[in-house]
Amino acid sequence: MVFFSPLIVMDKRLQMFLTSFLLILVSQASAFDTCPKCGNLEVPYPLSTNENCGEPNYRVYCNNGTLQFSSSRGLYYNILSINPSSNKLIINPPRIQKTQCFTSDFITEGFRIDDNSPFNISTHNTVMLFNCSSSIFLSPLNCTSSSFCRLFEDQMEEGSSCKGTLCCHFLKDSSMTSHRIKVRDGGCTAYTSAVDVQPGLSLDQWNYGIEIQWLLPN
Ligand SMILES: *[C@@H]1O[C@H](CO)[C@@H](O)[C@H](O)[C@H]1NC(C)=O
Ligand SMILES: *[C@@H]1O[C@H](CO)[C@@H](O)[C@H](O)[C@H]1NC(C)=O
Ligand SMILES: *[C@@H]1O[C@H](CO)[C@@H](O)[C@H](O)[C@H]1NC(C)=O
Ligand SMILES: *[C@@H]1O[C@H](CO)[C@@H](O)[C@H](O)[C@H]1NC(C)=O
Description:
Layout: H1 5-31, E1 35-38, E2 41-43, E3 61-63, E4 66-70, E5 76-83, E6 88-91, E7 110-112, E8 119-121, E9 125-130, H2 148-155, E10 168-171, E11 180-182, E12 190-195, E13 207-208, E14 210-214
Antiparallel strand pairs: 1-2, 3-4, 4-5, 5-6, 6-14, 7-11, 8-14, 9-10, 9-12, 12-13
The structure holds 2-acetamido-2-deoxy-beta-D-glucopyranose (NAG) (4 copies).
One 2-acetamido-2-deoxy-beta-D-glucopyranose is lined by residues 142, 144, 146-148.
């Protein structure tokens, strides 16, 4: 036993050294937890722009100073704003082409998030679909002549290429898939979305975007 006591003492010192070393490592690691700003947007935890910060499932992309969200089909959408306290972000809807009623994400059949992603499309989005085939007229789509999409086609420059097409709007509610907004040949070929539409606001005052929320990491 006597033989071992110096070793035990050494061990204690080593332990103290290691403990403080580890403490420094841990404090540095947590300093890396939140990602750096991207352009003028803060990137709150758990969003992750690289492998050294945030959580890997919460990947967003900082491309040349522009923060972007990737659909599961690999198209990038600019992130317009982030609300870290409600775990929500808003992305820019795809542009509707000037000459044809197609959104820029028509090639990937619209916007899609992976089913097992922590992100989903929130229930605050009013989605307008354009150039629809009559086969998609299911409730709760509102495809009447008073639908918001008519106003969008008539009043907004961006909707002008969709003027006169069959169109519908709906509130993305909890009865629907929260992982995609679909466009396709033979369905609808363009869409846009606005967040928290207030009755009475004119269309140019709407907050155009797709609101996405995320589950907190365990
Ligand atoms: C990156 O952004 C800067 C400033 O906005 C711009 O001048 C430059 O052309 C961009 N580079 C690329 C590769 O897009
Ligand atoms: C509407 O969609 C069809 C395909 O479903 C396409 O052929 C047609 O050009 C589109 N209309 C407009 C106005 O872009
Ligand atoms: C369709 O939407 C418009 C605008 O919100 C509303 O006034 C109208 O009552 C709706 N129609 C149906 C059938 O839901
Ligand atoms: C979407 O995510 C929120 C939390 O981020 C969750 O409460 C909700 O149940 C999810 N909705 C669906 C349909 O998965």
